[in-house]
């Protein structure tokens, strides 16, 4: 079975870069990865990972699965630009996440969500995931946006990928649910800050080791909202938790190949999952 080629784009940005300029720049980074099977971007990179004060004005509409119509409307700029980049590069694109605005509010009365999108090489929306666990406790994301409620998996080449986002990483029961839904790959975009970057690395390895699947963790670099320094350190791990590629603190592109047969061999050699009791 052929290996599955992945590019992880650890985007760096600061407050001085306009949202429209950043979208155009990152679309160029995606197009530069033409020929890869999968390209992955971080969480909330279009709107600013901690720039909560501007999320309302920067929120975008996101269409459901299917073709992305080129409307040219400002409120659709992100998804239309990412759709075009995926199509032009001929790649499956996990476009990271942005703040989505919906016509109808959620259970808490809010109409904003932290939503990630997977786009097929045709540019069509393949899958949409709304972040379940919101960071901030009683402030920030937790106060501003709605919580998603649906576990999402989607086929990516020879794998079935479980889609999660950033703070989700701290809740291992979510990943067991993805495993039970048939996932054998985890893709997790993030805006994880520098002060807790060791938690990031430790938890990513734990999720890969305990679930025995490869894991793609794409973090952000730069400083957002004037004072939030991002941790970088994007990671690609195999089903044994071994590091296949790791980024430094700045903008960087990781290029790796994943072997789907390695997961089967790892699970056969060390069949820990067969010993589960619940």
From TrEMBL:
- What family does this chain come from, according to its entry? Belongs to the carbon-nitrogen hydrolase superfamily. NIT1/NIT2 family.
Name the record gives this protein: Predicted amidohydrolase
Its taxonomic path starts at: Bacteria, Bacillati, Actinomycetota, Actinomycetes, Micrococcales
Keywords for this protein: Hydrolase
Q: What GO molecular-function term can you cite, just one? A: hydrolase activity
Identify the residues that the record assigns to the CN hydrolase domain, covering every copy: 4-260
Q: Which SUPFAM superfamilies match?
A: Carbon-nitrogen hydrolase (SSF56317)
Is ATP-binding among the key words of this record? no
């Amino acid at each position: 079975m052929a290996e599955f080629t992945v590019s992880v784009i650890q985007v760096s940005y600061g407050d001085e870069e306009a949202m429209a300029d950043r979208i155009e720049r990152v679309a160029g980074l995606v197009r530069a990865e033409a020929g890869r099977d999968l390209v992955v971007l971080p969480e909330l990179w279009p709107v600013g990972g901690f720039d909560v004060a501007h999320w309302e004005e920067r929120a975008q509409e996101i269409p459901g699965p299917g073709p992305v119509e080129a409307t040219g409307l400002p409120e659709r700029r992100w998804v239309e630009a990412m759709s075009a980049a995926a199509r032009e590069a001929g790649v499956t694109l996990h476009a990271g996440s942005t703040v989505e605005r919906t016509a109808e509010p959620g259970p808490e009365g809010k109409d904003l969500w932290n939503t990630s999108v997977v786009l097929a090489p045709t540019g069509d929306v393949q899958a949409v995931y709304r972040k379940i666990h919101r960071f901030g406790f009683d402030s920030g994301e937790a106060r501003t946006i709605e919580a998603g409620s649906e576990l999402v998996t989607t086929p990516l080449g020879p794998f079935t990928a479980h889609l999660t986002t950033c703070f989700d990483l701290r809740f291992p029961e979510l990943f067991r649910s993805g495993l039970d839904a048939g996932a054998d790959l985890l893709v997790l975009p993030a805006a994880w800050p520098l002060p807790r970057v060791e938690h990031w690395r430790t938890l990513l390895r734990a999720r890969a080791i305990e679930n025995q699947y490869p894991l793609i963790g794409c973090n952000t670099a730069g400083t957002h909202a004037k004072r939030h320094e991002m941790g970088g350190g994007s990671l690609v791990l195999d089903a044994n938790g071994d590091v296949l590629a790791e980024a430094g603190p700045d903008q960087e592109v990781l290029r790796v190949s994943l072997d789907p047969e390695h997961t089967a061999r790892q699970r056969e050699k060390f069949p820990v999952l067969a010993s589960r009791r619940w």
